[in-house]
Write a structure and sequence with these properties.
Keywords: Signal
GO cellular component, one term: migrasome
Radius of gyration: 21 Å
Shape: globular
Protein name: Exosomal polycystin 1 interacting protein
GO molecular function: identical protein binding
Pfam families: ECPIP
Length: about 220
């Protein structure tokens, strides 16, 4: 039997690289953060964990405790899931943080106040309220048309702030209702502080001159 030709070896090698790349992608971990009893646990999980199953998360994922005052602003280009029982820790975790794909799971029957989270670059939002009232998970796709490429690194205006061309405001009171998720977007908003004078967020929002923004309200 004749040995394989150089062309055949090249094809076999290319197929091997492709298979390895697929395997690595399949093994890519997702980030899970859960808050419980004034503690924050940040986990890297190789498989989906049932909502609010803290014991399983600690067993199956690689987790570490993060002190609330030590939470650092970061960005999440892939899936981020957060389990929470109240809104106290969500602001430091999410406000003006770049998150592409976010799932929020309420793990208590608490009534949540009308508070807003301001999230940069959000493309998909999923919410689960099974602990509060039995209903299927909801999902919302956000099309803004003005965001950068998904793999582009966020620019920093100054330390601790990210510039983002789209910002989504999420009304946390929606977890008290069983109605469907809705959103409303305003494109080409060049002066957010003047366009939305009642939103205190924009008084400290890192605005770049000569830039326009997409603002989405989720309710």
């Amino acid at each position: 039997m004749a040995p394989p030709s150089g062309c055949s070896l090249l094809v076999i090698g290319a197929l091997g690289v492709f298979a390895l790349d697929c395997f690595v992608r399949a093994q890519k971990n997702s980030t899970l953060i859960f808050t419980k009893e004034n503690t924050i646990r940040k986990c890297s999980c190789s498989a989906d964990i049932r909502d609010c199953d803290y014991s399983l998360a600690n067993l199956m994922c690689s987790c570490k405790t993060v002190l609330p005052f030590a939470v650092e602003q970061t960005s999440y280009n892939d899936h981020l899931t957060i389990w929470f029982t109240d809104t106290s820790a969500l602001g430091p975790l999410l406000n003006f943080t770049l998150v592409r794909d976010l799932k929020l799971s309420l793990c208590s029957a608490n009534i949540l106040p009308t508070e807003y989270l301001a999230i940069c670059g959000l493309k998909r939002l999923r919410i689960s309220t099974e602990a509060k009232h039995p209903s299927p998970e909801q999902s919302l796709l956000i099309h803004d048309g003005g965001e950068r490429e998904p793999r582009e690194k966020p620019m920093l205006l100054h330390q601790g702030w990210q510039t983002c061309m789209s910002v989504s405001f999420l009304d946390m009171a929606l977890f008290n209702r069983e109605s469907s998720l809705k959103s409303y977007s305003i494109a080409n908003s060049a002066s957010m502080a003047s366009n939305f004078p009642y939103f205190s967020y924009f008084k400290t929002f890192p605005v770049l001159s000569n830039k326009s923004y997409v603002v989405t309200f989720i309710y």
